[in-house]
TrEMBL record:
It is found in: Cell membrane. CDD domains: TM_PBP1_LivM_like (cd06581). It comes from the Bacteria. Pfam families: BPD_transp_2. Keywords: Cell membrane, Membrane, Transmembrane, Transmembrane helix. GO terms for cellular component: plasma membrane. The keyword Transmembrane applies. The chain crosses the membrane at residues 6-27, 34-51, 57-78, 99-123, 129-147, 168-185, 219-238, 250-279, 299-317. GO terms for molecular function: branched-chain amino acid transmembrane transporter activity. This is Branched-chain amino acid ABC transporter permease. It comes from Microbaculum marinisediminis. It is a multi-pass membrane protein.
Length: 339
């Protein structure tokens, strides 16, 4: 790891550890819950950055791989005595399998990666609008499967009974690991070639870059991190429905990446912090206004509207996001030379 990358990594780790310790020692359960979800979102956003930031292709399907990780890890950890009630139609071969939550989270991440590896390669030949539309179609297909595969997901109903295993420490460790993976992937040979394809597809192809294979590698890595985040999330929330992995969550995750800066790992991390805390502040404001009856009507959708307006403003004023091109380490070294 060179100095610039090391500084970037340290600059990411410090705020992660700082908010983790603050959440633990302040002793507010709500704040600790928000911080834990922030770390899980950070893994998701970094996974999306690994593909979207390096390939330049918007992917709507990312959140569906989170769902695969969540459902797979939950399937193997719901206590045996509860499975008959939670999943009455579960396949007999799966009924006796019980894993520890940590092993199940890893299995969920691998399952998401394998599904991505199987379905994605033909799609990686596409570019521009066609690639975006097919990724949206993939999200719709996987959401429909989650809603209707009652034997495994309990259909559109709530899946409950998932043991709580994700702590703030585990989520923080996962976020730091995801940041390390994203940084290494960005500077790896695959990451460099992927960005060369993004910047000039024809020229990179003429130099021998295998466009489909490079995108496929990025997409599979992205799905692995999304599946990992899904397993952590499922073992933190403990009950959920397929609607948790659809358009609303996709919009929030995309908002974090776009506002922070899709082209950099630093931007992905900054966007996650900014949007998470802004989102929670807006939600609290909305609840306070409704409970105090300031308006004669119920205020609904304030958080989503403000996030959408923020995305529009960033795209209009700073299309590359708050941190467009340089990682924290490169900026730090430049400032030191000037100083």
């Amino acid at each position: 790891m060179n100095n610039s990358k090391l500084i970037t990594f340290v600059a990411i780790v410090i705020p992660v550890l700082a908010v983790m310790l603050a959440a633990r020692f302040l002793g507010f359960p709500v704040f600790e819950r928000i911080v834990t979800l922030l770390f899980i979102n950070m893994i998701l956003v970094l996974g999306l950055q690994a593909f979207m930031g390096n390939s330049g292709i918007l992917s709507f399907a990312h959140i569906a791989f989170m769902g695969i990780g969540a459902y797979t890890s939950s399937l193997f950890t719901i206590p045996l005595q509860m499975r008959g009630m939670v999943l009455p139609d579960l396949y007999p071969v799966l009924k006796p399998i019980l894993l520890s939550p940590y092993a199940a989270i890893a299995v969920g991440a691998v399952a998401a990666m394998l599904v991505a590896a199987l379905v994605a390669y033909p799609l990686m030949r596409l570019s521009d609008a066609a690639a975006v539309i097919t990724s949206f179609a993939l999200l719709v297909v996987m959401h429909t499967i989650m809603v209707n595969w009652s034997e495994v997901t309990n259909g559109p109903r709530t899946l409950f009974g998932v043991p709580k295993a994700t702590t703030i420490y585990l989520a923080a460790a996962g976020a730091i690991l995801a940041a390390l993976i994203a940084l290494y992937f960005k500077e790896s040979r695959t990451g460099l070639l992927l960005r060369a394809v993004r910047d000039d597809e024809v020229a990179a192809g003429a130099m021998g870059a295998n466009l489909s294979l490079l995108r496929w590698k990025g997409f599979v890595l992205s799905a692995l991190l999304a599946g990992f985040a899904g397993g952590l999330w499922a073992h933190f929330i403990t009950s959920y429905q397929p609607s948790a992995f659809y358009l609303k969550e996709t919009f929030v995750i995309l908002g974090m990446l776009v506002i922070g800066g899709a082209g950099t790992v630093s931007g992905a991390v900054l966007g996650t912090f900014v949007v998470t805390f802004a989102f929670e502040a807006l939600r609290a404001t909305e609840n306070a206004l409704n409970s105090s009856s300031v308006f004669p009507w119920q205020l609904v959708g304030l958080t989503e509207i403000v996030l959408a307006l923020a995305m529009i403003a960033v795209l209009a004023l700073r299309p590359g996001g708050l941190i467009e091109a340089e990682e924290f380490g490169a900026t730090w070294r430049k400032l030191r030379r000037r100083g």
